[in-house]
UniProtKB/TrEMBL annotation:
Keywords: Membrane, Transmembrane, Transmembrane helix. This is DUF374 domain-containing protein. The lineage of its organism: Bacteria, Pseudomonadati, Nitrospirota, Nitrospiria, Nitrospirales. Pfam families: DUF374 (PF04028). InterPro entries: DUF374 (IPR007172). The chain crosses the membrane at residues 15-33, 54-73.
Length: 235
């Protein structure tokens, strides 16, 4: 449930963020409630979540919007990594309203301290960790070192997740952010856990990166196979 490395903000800013995060949370919660959800291969994932078999959960950054619908279990039984940017402050507050803890930092700033905090949380088997391995700024669909090092040092498997929508819009952002249409079908898929056993050297990281990338692509391919392509791209 820990949140670290937040920048200092004024009382006025804090109040504005409190109001904006509440309104954003309520709007998103109402919006995603309209989706017709199907969960695929999720039994093992749900069992590991509920039986306190600590996981690292990974999914591509462009699927962030509806991933809270894949979080089962107790409030603050899961924490996710969010950048120290101004946008990250708002995102962190919205996420915490879902009952998801946040750790602040990224590969660009605060990364070492954030990794230490995630490792501390990983000592509690009832606490799960969620990461976007290509976030917060890309390149898209490229796994960075952080999730791999976290898995190597914690001994936790990485469970790849994916979501695909029957009808959606795709933004012209760096990650091609996905926004489902209201009332469309959403297919949530859990892949097989990836156990990172390589050494934390350049060669080991490259081999682990290739395996996790393949697992994420396979999970996404299965999710996409559930739908008939009807997406559109907007700016």
């Amino acid at each position: 449930m820990s949140e670290t490395f937040s920048r200092k903000i004024s009382l006025r800013e804090d109040l504005s963020l409190w109001i904006l995060s509440l309104l954003s949370y309520l709007l998103i919660r109402l919006y995603v409630a309209t989706l017709r959800k199907t969960y695929i291969n999720a039994e093992g994932y749900r069992r590991r979540y509920e039986k306190d078999e600590g996981m690292i959960i990974a999914f591509w950054h462009n699927q962030l919007l509806t991933m809270p619908l894949f979080y089962f279990g107790r409030r603050f039984g899961l924490s996710t990594l969010i950048s120290l940017s101004k946008d990250g402050e708002l995102t962190s507050r919205i996420v915490r309203r879902w009952g998801i803890g946040t750790v602040r930092g990224s590969s660009h700033r605060g990364g070492i301290a954030a990794l230490k905090e995630m490792l501390r949380l990983s000592r509690d088997s009832s606490h799960h960790l969620a990461l976007t391995p290509d976030g917060p700024k890309g390149p898209p669909f490229v796994v960075k070192d952080g999730p791999l090092i976290l898995a190597m040092r914690s001994g936790r498997p990485i469970t790849p997740l994916a979501v695909a929508y029957q009808r959606y819009a795709q933004m012209k952002s760096w990650d091609g952010f996905l926004i489902p249409f209201p009332f469309t079908k959403a297919y949530f898929v859990s892949g097989d856990p990836v156990h990172i056993t390589e050494e934390a050297d350049p060669e080991g990281l490259d081999r682990a990166r290739a395996r996790l990338t393949a697992a994420l692509h396979a999970t996404n391919a299965l999710a996409m196979s559930m739908r008939t392509p009807k997406g559109i791209r907007i700016s």
